[in-house]
Amino acid sequence: MKRFAIIAPADSSSAARMLAEPHRAALAGGVDLLDTLKQNLAAPDELVNLKALGGLDRIERAPGGGLRIGPLVKLSQLAAAPDVRARHAALADAANAAATPQIRNLATVAGNLAQRPRCWYFRNPDIVCLKKGGTKCYAVAGLNRYHAILGGGPSFIVHPSNLAPALVAYDATLTILAPDGERQLAIADFFTPPTIDPRRENILTPGRIITAIEVPAPLANAGAAWLEAREKQSFDWPLVSVVAIIALNHAGVVEYARVVMGAVAPIPWRAPAAEKILLGARLDRDLATRAAAAALAGAAPLAHNGYKVPIAKALVRRAILRAANLADEPA
Ligand SMILES: Cc1cc2nc3c(=O)[nH]c(=O)nc-3n(C[C@H](O)[C@H](O)[C@H](O)COP(=O)(O)OP(=O)(O)OC[C@H]3O[C@@H](n4cnc5c(N)ncnc54)[C@H](O)[C@@H]3O)c2cc1C
Ligand code: SF4
Q1: Which CATH number do you get for residue 229?
Q2: Does residue 183 sit in the same domain as residue 78?
Q3: For residue 100, what are the domain limits?
Q4: What single string gives the DSSP state of each residue in 161-190?
Q5: Are residues 175 and 256 in the same domain?
């Protein structure tokens, strides 16, 4: 690993200006950044320590009952915050399911969204695949057990963040600060599919930093569920995760539906076909099963990851029913 210095910005604007220099990188909790330095995926001379900035590690109530989450809020803090647990339970559960308690005490919300993918070809310092500027995706004909079943190509990574699908489901907005000013964007527009550029996963370019994450208040009658399947129960990235947000009217008819999957595609993968089947229909197990089938209708697994399709279908169905507080199996 190349030697680097750590420098402290005076405020967010000077952090953005410092980071406009490509020989620098933003340091938050350091969990993924330090790994990428060891794996020669990045070789900055200086790390701009965002933890030196005050006030970016708070969760505050926003007008209208939403949340304003600072980028330096830790996953453990997000998971435990009473306001988050009460109104955005799927976000709290997604944070609580990530990694280990020790990592959750270090890892920040912005760092979690900007972490690099886990593809073993990408993480191997000796392999130069498409994502590192090479000419080939080694996962296509190689070991692709953990890769994308939806939206893949030309890179088949899955987005590794637990928070990403939850924040997409809750319609979060990010504030991005750059040397030329600040702008807000819907979190769904933060992630970039590999068809746009296989070398990147989001719109962050030198000088752009996340300074806030705003999550609107959910509908009063909406319920939410986060479910995941993973290989190791102790700690691991999910094989598949699902967030469902469902609101029913007094007759049990779906008034609002959001279904977003994680770990199945290079970006958090919303399932509009499933939402369409749900909206306006009376929710029961059969409807949830049909919605789950629609969510996976476009799946195109590689040679070794077809097992993800039935797992994802089962989790989508269960998450929809759980969000609506309905039992998955007949009593
Ligand atoms: C064993 C293990 C298991 C894990 N399991 C999971 C899991 O199940 N689910 C999951 O979601 N994650 C998992 N992770 C990943 C972990 O959650 C992330 O590495 C962590 O959240 C990154 O946050 P950080 O604050 O440490 O970011 P850093 O490592 O400091 O930064 C990561 C990236 O984000 C950039 N960055 C940080 N803050 C900002 C900002 N404000 N603006 C712009 N760019 C910024 C950095 O420059 C860097 O490129 C696991 C990690 C380990 C080691
Ligand atoms: S999936 Fe992406 S990161 Fe992995 S080998 Fe292919 S191009 Fe590289």
Answers
A1: 3.30.390.50
A2: yes
A3: 59-114+158-215
A4: -SHHHHHHHTT-EEEEEETTEEEEEEGGGT
A5: no
Q: Which amino acid is at 132?
A: K
Nearest CA to ligand 1 atom 46: 26
- Looking at all shown ligands, the one closest to residue 122's CA atom is 2
* Any domain includes 31: no
Please identify which residue in the block is written with the tokens 């799927």: 90
| 293 found inside a domain | yes
Residues with CB under 6 A from ligand 2: 117, 119, 121-122, 129-131, 137-139, 147, 155-157, 198
CB 32 within 8 A of CB 75: no
Q: Please indicate, yes or no, whether the overall pTM of this predicted structure exceeds 0.85.
A: yes
Question: Which ligand neighbours the alpha carbon of 158 most closely?
Answer: 2
Q: How far apart are CA 240 and CA 261, in angstroms?
A: 7
For the chain, the domain total comes to 2
Reading the block at residue 148, the tokens are 């994308």
What does each of the 331 residues of the chain score in pLDDT, given as a tens digit?
A: 889 999 999 999 999 999 999 999 999 999 999 999 999 999 999 999 999 999 999 999 998 889 999 999 999 999 999 999 999 999 999 999 999 999 999 999 999 999 999 999 999 999 999 999 999 999 999 999 999 999 999 999 999 999 999 999 999 999 999 999 999 999 999 999 999 999 999 999 999 999 999 999 999 999 999 999 999 887 889 999 999 999 999 999 999 999 999 999 999 999 999 999 999 999 999 999 999 999 999 999 999 999 999 999 999 999 999 999 998 876 5
Pocket test residue of 115, 209, 233 for ligand 1, highest count of atoms within 8 A of CB = 115
Centroid of ligand 2 to alpha carbon of 310 (angstroms)? 24
> What is the 257 CA–ligand 1 centroid distance (Å)?
29
* Same domain flag for 230 and 178: no
